[in-house]
Input
Amino acid sequence: MPLFWLRIALALYGFGLLYAVMAIWGERERLTRIMLPTVGLGTVFHFVSVIESVRLTDFDTSWSIHQFESLLAFLLMAFFFAIYARYRTASPGIAIFPLAFVLTLSAQSYSENSPTNPTPFHPVWIYVHVALVLVGYSALIVSFVASILYLIQERSLKAKGVARFWSRLPALATIDEIGYRCLIFGFPFMTFGLIAGSILAEAKFGAGYFKDPKILLSILMWVVYTILLYTRWSAGWRGRRAAYLATCAFAAAAVAWVANIRP
Output
């Protein structure tokens, strides 16, 4: 059943993908009225799929990468609707919708009858680690999307561009605030998620777990995340410099993600 609900969500997310494509050409006003409730319904079905998947496995076996992709896609959609509720802008959807669609498309390809190797760890720690880290990743991805939109909007304004979509993006200050608030929200989740992961890694590898390249990459990603927050909070970095640093933090997170999902 989780796979059934996931595929329904994927079909409904197709409207979000259509919105992202059409928005580039400026045809988003009419689509928004249809897209928001449709994609919202898809998010509800996706939530049901995630809950059923957790209930059926109860983390007695390790989740597959496709199930992690499903959870990450759901969290991205949850972030989108949180941003829309606060700022009344669907602009981040131009990047979030395609990414969520691709992740869901990949996630629905997994076989429900192919469990992975059993894990010796307590299910609670695994649940905490996965949930916290994925929320942190989602916040960082949304912040990266906001940074890209900021750079595009800034360039468009300087060039006095007339592109219909880019001219309808939120004000630069609003885009910058979205990215900043996502970073602040996601940082504690990422931090405590990595702490929970360290506990799991020490139980599996012993005291020398920190020598594992995957662990080192995760720590590096956290350091870059911390530097990004520090420069924005204490050094007062805003705008373009913050956007470039957010891009670097996203790249570090992407490398750490790829390293940790590889067998």
